[in-house]
Amino acid sequence: MKATQLAEGVWWVGAIDWNLRDYHGYTLPGTTYNAYLVVGTEKTVLIDTCYPGFEEQVLGRVASVVDPKTIDAIVANHIEVDHSGGLPKMARMLPGVPIYCTEIAVKGLGRHYDTQDWNLQVVKTGDTLALGNKTLTFLEAPMLHWPDSMFTYLAEDEILFPNDAFGQHIASSERFDDELGKDASLSHAQKFFANLIIPLAPKVLKKLDQVGGLGIGISMIAPSHGVIWRSHAGDILQAYTDWSKGVSKEKVTIVYDTMHGSTDRMAQALADGAMDGGLEVKVCLLRDGRYEGCHRSDIVTEMLDSKAILIGSPTLEDEVLPTVAGFLSYLRGLSPGLLAQKKIGFAFGSHGGHGGAVKQIGESMQKAGIEVLGDGYEVTFRPDADEREACYRAGLALAERVRSL
Ligand code: FEO
Predict the structure, then answer these.
(1) Which neighbouring-strand residues pair with 73?
(2) In angstroms, what CA-CA distances link 175 with 4, 14, 224, 377?
């Protein structure tokens, strides 16, 4: 296997995980664990490693450039196991090799591995590592993605290694954004942002400001997952700014489950009203993700660029249906209210007894930081023609509201 060259002396030496389909509840078409080798005139450095079990791929690609035993130092930008899992093998292979990371990473690595014999070197923002003709500069980036995270910048080649930030979960033979295609690269990045970065959006905006204030050139962004941004670095930076600000389209995402078709009829009428009102509409039937494009991780991706989200459920034993309850739990965790521009929401559903699901959905959406319109709409048993008409009109009214934002 071969490494892929980014610039003179800079190589992708990561691993491809073709078979991964679920990553803590996020569906994905495989992923990559990107590691990079920077070969300077005086020192050779490995930036990040891989998930445990993928070390042979990393070492094989390193070996296509240099003897792995000549690695002088390792940079651990982030301790999550998909990037640090190769460290135990590397530390055994390279006894005493300095591993540069943040102070929080030292503690975190000690909780994951037996680091007693590791040569962990704490770095802070602005610290540098000279490799001869190249210099690495470190920039702490707490919570992007974990408290330990940091970015590494290679000044001479204007390459930023931001670990998870700007990543995408995609396994492919393409290594660069122009090879995979701009739209596909941004689309995978949108799903990554929606499922992992939304709660961190305020920190993203601050970090982008901080990086912008440094006045450094960024010709290439080499994240720890997916393709490397060499042709569209400006586009992914702008996309992160827009997504963090909550910039969205005149679009509504309607998500629901149904027992005997009543909540489904309401969803269809709401969708008709919203469409006739001029909105782009995405309808997602929650069935434990068995409908293509309707897994919770796909739905929040649709939600990210929607101005509104409508959520529906019948009442089952005085509760929201479990499929919808699971989605609401995921939504509350992501906290889309942290996006600078708030989304608006509406709850709907049906019941054959006391009802209550609609109220619970509205409360959950409020906890997620969504601006909920009114008390929602709940019908008894089947929605009749008047009630379906009311749903249609609610869709029209929502469209008018969305288009006025
Ligand atoms: Fe790709 Fe936070 O790990």
Answers:
(1) 45
(2) 8, 10, 12, 48
Place of tokens 């300077």: 40
Q: Determine whether the shortest distance from the Cβ of 43 to ligand 1 is under 6 A.
A: no
Where in 314-366 does DSSP place strands (E)?
A: 315-316, 319-320, 344-351
Kindly report the length of the chain: 405
Confidence of residue 25 (pLDDT cuts 50, 70, 90): confident
- Amino acid at the residue 395: G
pLDDT of residue 44: 98
Nearest atom of ligand 1 to the alpha carbon of 225: 1
User: Is 224 touching ligand 1 by the criterion CB < 6 Å?
Assistant: yes
Tell the residue nearest (CA) to atom 1 of ligand 1: 164
Which residues have a Cβ under 8 Å from the Cβ of 198 and sit 6 or more positions away? Answer: 243, 300, 304, 334, 335, 336, 338, 339
Ligand 1, atom nearest to 164 Cα:
1
Q: CA-CA distance, 229 to 191, in Å (whole number)?
A: 16
Handedness of CA 193, 199, 202, 203 (dihedral sign): negative
Tokens 């078979």 correspond to: 19
Q: Span 121-126, mean pLDDT?
A: 97
Strand residues in 301-353 grouped as ranges (E): 306-312, 315-316, 319-320, 344-351
* CA of residue 169 to ligand 1 center, whole Å: 10
**Could you tell me the CA-to-CA distances from 250 to 132, 301, 307, 373 in Å, in that order?**
52, 15, 6, 17
| Rounded Cα–Cα distance for residues 161 and 134 (Å) | 14
- Residue 238 predicted with pLDDT over 90: yes
Pocket of ligand 1 contains residue 169 by CB under 6 Å: no
With a cut of 90, say whether residue 396 has pLDDT above it: yes
